[in-house]
UniProtKB/TrEMBL annotation:
Listed name of the protein: Nicotinamidase
Enzyme class: hydrolase
InterPro entries cross-referenced by the UniProt entry: Isochorismatase-like_dom, Isochorismatase-like_sf, Isochorismatase_Nicotinamidase
Similarity comment: Belongs to the isochorismatase family.
Keyword flag Glycoprotein: no
Residue ranges annotated for the Isochorismatase-like domain, each copy included: 11-204
Species in which this protein is naturally found: Methylobrevis pamukkalensis
Pathway: Cofactor biosynthesis; nicotinate biosynthesis; nicotinate from nicotinamide: step 1/1
Entry EC no(s): 3.5.1.19
Domain of life: Bacteria
Length: 208
């Protein structure tokens, strides 16, 4: 018998936090629109995990940590190129909280990322050196969870990097596009969607 993705799969809710919603420090256009859709999904998925961007003050990914650097400029760091962001999601501050409308009741695990001062972490699985693990792959494997669906913020950064790494780690991955919103810096959304499809991520234009 064919079962629905929601019955087999694990929903991974990416960074639905105050700073990524309108009015926040790194607001994603219409980012708050995902909240109700994600609540509807998480009530139906068998397993739910949420990620939380969680940076110390003075994090190396902040433009304010570099002399004369503008937010949204790109620099080279030891682990590769890094977009410099406005200060956001500082651990323990209100901006790092989940959106108040997000239903956390169905969430089995919250995984924080980006807490090391000198390395960013877009992906739920690895920091931006693409090799330091967050522990999420081990958690999912140990629980026998192999089929992952991603929703949240932002499509072209943390959602895309998470789904790419999921496939790299041997999971199957879908992105639920209606429940994601993008930052879209100089074509980053189009580039991300092409890369996702090339990597074998299922880009779903309708919700399951
Ligand atoms: C994110 C930029 C910086 C995201 C997090 O959640 O997509 N983007 N930190
Ligand atoms: Zn961040």
């Amino acid at each position: 018998m064919r079962t629905d993705l929601t019955e087999r799969g694990t929903l991974i809710i990416v960074d639905v936090q105050i700073d990524f919603c309108p009015g926040g420090a790194l607001a994603v256009d219409r980012g708050d629109e995902v909240v109700g859709l994600i609540n509807g999904l998480s009530a139906r998925f068998a397993h739910v995990v949420a990620t939380q961007d969680w940076h110390p003050a003075g994090h190396l990914s902040f433009a304010s940590s570099h002399a004369d650097a503008a937010p949204f400029s790109v620099i080279e760091l030891g682990y590769g190129s890094q977009t410099l962001w406005p200060d956001h999601c500082i651990a323990g501050t209100p901006g790092a909280d989940f959106h108040p409308g997000l239903d956390l009741t169905p969430v089995d695990l919250v995984i924080r990322k980006g807490f090391r001062p000198t390395i960013d972490s877009y992906s739920a699985f690895f920091e931006n050196d693409r090799s330091t693990p967050t522990g999420l792959a081990g958690y999912l494997r140990e629980r026998g969870l192999t089929e992952l669906a991603f929703a949240g913020l932002a499509t072209d950064f943390c959602v895309a990097w998470s789904a790419m790494d999921a496939v790299r780690c041997g999971f199957s991955a879908s992105i639920l596009m209606p429940a994601c919103r993008a930052i879209d810096l100089s074509g980053s959304l189009e580039a991300a969607v092409a890369a996702l499809k090339g990597a074998g991520v299922t880009v779903m234009e309708e919700l399951p």
